[in-house]
Amino acid sequence: MGQNIPAGKISRFKSETVYRTLGEYQSLKDLEQTSVNFIGNDVSVRVSDLGQVVDTLKDERMKAFHNGEEAIFLRVFRQSGSNTIAVADAIIEKVQRLNESFLTKKGKPKLSVVLDLSKFIRFNVEDVQESIFFGITLPSDGYRLHFPK
After folding, report:
1. Half-sphere exposure (Cβ direction) of 118: Cα atoms closer than 13 Å
2. What is the pLDDT of residues 3-38, one digit of tens each?
3. In degrees, to the nearest 5, what angle opens at C-alpha 94 toward C-alphas 114 and 6?
4. Phi first, then psi: what are they for 11, rounded to 5°?
5. Which residues on neighbouring strands pair with residue 66, listed in sequence order?
6. What is the pLDDT of residues 79-134, one digit of tens each?
7. Of 89, 88, 91, 82, which Cα lies nearest the Cα of 43?
8. Whole-angstrom Cα distance, residue 11 to residue 26?
9. pTM exceeds 0.70
């Protein structure tokens, strides 16, 4: 632990950039005890609460691409009981803020929302709102047509 170790590489055209990281932790126990916090949740948890910490390195087995460029894909799930649309909106807002802060960073990285499944819930909400609107307005219009004052 606490060593200068490979963290990944990016190959583009005929060049390859290798990234290394300086280990911050002196033991796996230190890493397990690190507190992390998730967007929209004020309660922090320890890394050990999320999974098992293992000291190992593996060769790259998969690559992700977006618009023909190497990418990192991150899947975000809402917590049970939270509002899907609110979570999606918070993520979109956070992505925009991060992209603004990345403008000054080397390489100008960019985050993109590739798939937002909340759109189906949004469609359902709009459908319910439309049904409520027609349910209120049509019967009252029909009443006026058949029974004029």
Report:
1. 17
2. 566 667 777 788 887 776 666 677 888 888 888 777
3. 75
4. -105, 125
5. 69
6. 888 888 999 999 999 999 989 988 888 888 888 888 888 888 888 888 888 888 87
7. 82
8. 31
9. no
